[in-house]
Amino acid sequence: MSDIGGRMRTHIAAILLISLAMMGGLLHGHTASAATSRGIDFTLKQSEAPGAAISGTVRLYEESYALVIGIDDYTGGWPRLSNAVRDARLVAETLRARGFHVDFRKNLRFADFTQALKDFFAIRGENPEARLFLWYAGHGHSEHGEGFLVPADAPKPSARGRFKLSAIHMRDFEGLVRLAESRHVFAVFDACFAGTIFKSGRGTPPPAITRKTTLPVRQFLTSGDADQEVPDDGRFRKLFLRAITGEAPRADANGDGYLTGSELGLFMEDRVAALTSGRLTPRYGKLLDEDYDRGDFVFALPVAAESAEASGV
Predict the structure, then answer these.
(1) Residue 53: CB partners within 8 Å, gap ≥ 6?
(2) Is domain 40-310 in CATH 3.40.50.1460, yes or no?
(3) Residue of higher predicted confidence among 30 and 277
(4) Phi, psi (deg, nearest 5) at residue 143
(5) pLDDT tens, residue by residue, 115-132
(6) pTM
(7) Mean pLDDT score of the chain, rounded to an integer?
(8) Contact 154/167 with Cβ under 8 angstroms?
(9) How big is the CA angle at 215 (ends 209 and 216), to the nearest 5 degrees?
(10) What integer pLDDT is reported at residue 208 of this predicted model?
(11) Can you count the helices (H) and strands (E) in the chain?
(12) Where are the domains of the chain?
């Protein structure tokens, strides 16, 4: 009898421990969710001039959403890839740890790919105070200066009209990003194609975050130019993750603890070009539209986020 009672007490104790652990997990999840939903506070400068005074703070990004897509298994004649899905999964995990609500998808066929994009920009983009981030790893194609994303079931370009019907034209993608009411949208393509809808940027990123940074923007970054073959080796993903997690200090050009889309684009272009001796040149820029080329997408690097948390922001 005493042995049975001992086992019962052991089982009850185990159940209590499991219950407490589950409650702790729920509370931790609630805290993390609350931290995400309250947004990020950015310190603003009065101007971009060196040494400009602080004008105050602004709270951006009530919600942060990411759609992360990787395609390895091509069935229409395109070469199978080895690391696109893996790279996408690693990006998804990192973004989730950085407070994003992440939808991770792999090996999407045309119909599912198109629907996922529509849902993301139209539904997730309903909130003007949310930020939207898209990552795509897979094949891209350029033809007569026009860029295409290649779903898993798209035939080769030699199929001509059938390829165009089964690929996602970047001009159609432009229409999709316009569906979003969110002020800041950033799309990163680990693929090469012509930058049909955006003008490649170059120059020095703004030296400070100002009110201008908060204005609407649609930003883009590709891992290669139209006439370049992007290797399936994970390098682009690795450098990208190092930049947004603060492991590449040079990415934060002005050292303010925030990584803007412009800073990220300049870092990726210079670093990848240097590592490949110019054989591969990422391109970045903003939508060719006077209403969507004004602001800048912002990642709060861990040091900035930790400082804000410590100060009670």
Answers:
(1) 45, 46
(2) yes
(3) 277
(4) -150, 120
(5) 999 999 999 999 999 999
(6) 0.84
(7) 84
(8) yes
(9) 130
(10) 81
(11) 8, 14
(12) 40-310
